Amino acid sequence: MNEGMRTSHDPSPGELGVLVKATQALLNQRMDEALRPLGLTVPQYACLSNLIDEPGITSSELARRSFVSRQSMNVLLQGLERAGLVQRSEQPGQRREKAAQLTGRAESLFAQADNAVQAVARRMTAGLGKAQRTELFALLTACGDALSEE
Amino acid sequence: MNEGMRTSHDPSPGELGVLVKATQALLNQRMDEALRPLGLTVPQYACLSNLIDEPGITSSELARRSFVSRQSMNVLLQGLERAGLVQRSEQPGQRREKAAQLTGRAESLFAQADNAVQAVARRMTAGLGKAQRTELFALLTACGDALSEE
DNA sequence: CGGTTTACGTCAATATATTGACATAAATCG
DNA sequence: CGATTTATGTCAATATATTGACGTAAACCG
Questions:
Q1: Global pTM?
Q2: CA distances from B123 to A9, A118, A149 (A)
Q3: What's residue B2's pLDDT?
Q4: From B143, which residue of chain A is nearest by alpha-carbon distance?
Q5: Torsion angle of alpha carbons B30, B34, B35, B41, nearest 10°?
Q6: Residue B128, C-beta contacts closer than 8 angstroms, at least 6 positions apart
Q7: Is the Cβ of A7 closer than 8 Å to some Cβ of chain B?
Q8: Least CB–CB distance from A147: residue in B30, B142, B146
């Protein structure tokens, strides 16, 4: 019986926590290696990605989506501004917010960066079928939801 | 048909990458909140945990297991030393390594910290059955393996 | 309406982490 | 054996991130 079934561990919650951390660390490392030739860091890429998804977004909102403080996001944005990749509107809006946008040069650079990052992500999930990717998504979502409630 | 089946997404590799990061960030945040009353940070807890698992381990090895540089681990260890939680052997071994060990006081503190952290991990996996935890473990391991090969 | 709360952006101080370099001594290998 | 490689610890400089605080103005609500 159980032919072809691989022996599989019976993980404790703590082991799963460690594994989540280890997986993320490895993914981050690979993304960093993939982005380095383009002169971008992972946080910078994440910032550009969020700005592509929602142009004119505020710095504080970017900070939330990147899981960093708004102060950190501000210095990150300053770096991207200095590099000519983002442009922040002076004389800002009703809530003192300064809308940030990508420059044209940034958009073409981001296209390359996104290719590199997506390749890493595909590599990560190369051994998984469609049903397994769906399952992983559902399981991680359940974990996140459990950690989010009240 | 499909009664009782919840609509489930068909995630791209990139979405899974973002989700891994988001899950880890949330887990880290909850661990931080759980450890703060004890005066410990997550990296400090991880360090103590590794020292419990393998007493006399070297600083560089601790750095590898925590996914940080050995320089960072060194300042972290200095902080733990100053707090009287770890003790490093002077006049060290054959490879210039200084074995680090927990003090008795640290062991009782770690017991409390581990309780708090394990509770967070259990909360994270509260909605998962045994089979689902095993599946999540297998899927994350597959992702890590795919990112590790050559 | 008027007081309170919330939200952005920013300044300052500090903590944390990384990169680069160096000395040292063991391990490796031709 | 002798030369090269590897590994640890450490110093210095720098980058990155956090906490705390402040001013401001919109949103909220009794």
A1: 0.91
A2: 20, 31, 10
A3: 63
A4: A124
A5: 10
A6: A139, A142, A143, B136
A7: no
A8: B30
List C-alpha distances in Å: A77 to A44, A83, A119: 8, 10, 25
- Separation of CA B92 and C1' C25 in angstroms? 12
From first to last of its 150 residues, chain B has per-residue pLDDT tens of: 667 677 888 999 999 999 999 999 999 999 999 999 999 999 999 999 999 999 999 999 999 999 999 999 999 999 999 999 999 987 666 666 788 999 999 999 999 999 999 999 999 999 999 999 999 999 999 999 999 987
**Chain A 65-104, CB < 7 Å to strand C:** 70-71, 74, 92, 95-98
- Cβ A140 vs Cβ B9: under 8 Å: no
What's the CA gap between B123 and B119, in Å, rounded? 6
Residues of A (15-44) placing their beta carbon closer than 7 angstroms to any atom of strand D are 41, 43
Q: Which nucleotides of D are covered by protein (CB under 7 A)?
A: 7-13, 16-20, 23-27
Considering only the beta carbons, identify the residue of B8, B17, B148 that sits closest to A121.
B17
Could you report the per-residue pLDDT of A15-44, keeping only the tens digit for each? Answer: 999 999 999 999 999 999 999 999 999 999
Amino acid type, A104: G
CB neighbour burial string for A94-106, b if at least 16 within 10 angstroms, e if fewer: eeebbebebeeeb
